[in-house]
Amino acid sequence: MSDERLIQEVLARYARAVDARDGDAVAELYEPEGRERLSYNRRGSPEPIAQFEGAEAIRNAVATVLPAHPRLGWAHHMTFDPIIAVDGDTANLDAQFVVYSVQGDERPASGWPRGATGGQGRILPVEAGYYRLKLRRASDGWKIVDNHTILDLPPALP
Predict the structure, then answer these.
(1) I need a labelling partner for 9 at 20 to 30 A (CA). Which of 16, 79, 101, 130 fits?
(2) What is the pTM of this model?
(3) Positive or negative, the Cα torsion across 29, 32, 34, 38?
(4) Radius of gyration over alpha carbons of the chain, in Å?
(5) Strand order in the sheet with 73-87
(6) How many Å apart are CA 120 and CA 156, to the nearest integer?
(7) Could you report the per-residue pLDDT of 31-58, keeping only the tens digit for each?
């Protein structure tokens, strides 16, 4: 696989791990001293919100900063238009994203077994922005050195 495709796969694994609220899987994508920065895009100028450095801090952020999924709910990241530049053993990736909240419906389903829930529920866009990653090639693949997540909407943090 090309370096560009391997780097794009790091972003895909990141999105799935965040959706699953799997802090171990997220932290594994970073270098041991990697950094996650979270900002709000205030009219084109990123305004810092939070920063997490090192695997343990990133792992804990997934558990404490991200809201838990509601019963019968989930999150789905969609990433778009990755721009990837590789320079030897370092790379940059810039991609847009939208996060959807998937919320199941608690109403009884007609014709389904007793206790089953009905309706499809709702799928709502809840976040959008940019991922700006700096990566480094390691012996076990590309690792995130720095991920600057820039949100286009102010976050609802706990």
Answers:
(1) 101
(2) 0.86
(3) positive
(4) 17
(5) 45-53, 30-42, 141-151, 122-138, 90-103, 73-87
(6) 25
(7) 999 999 999 998 888 989 999 999 999 9
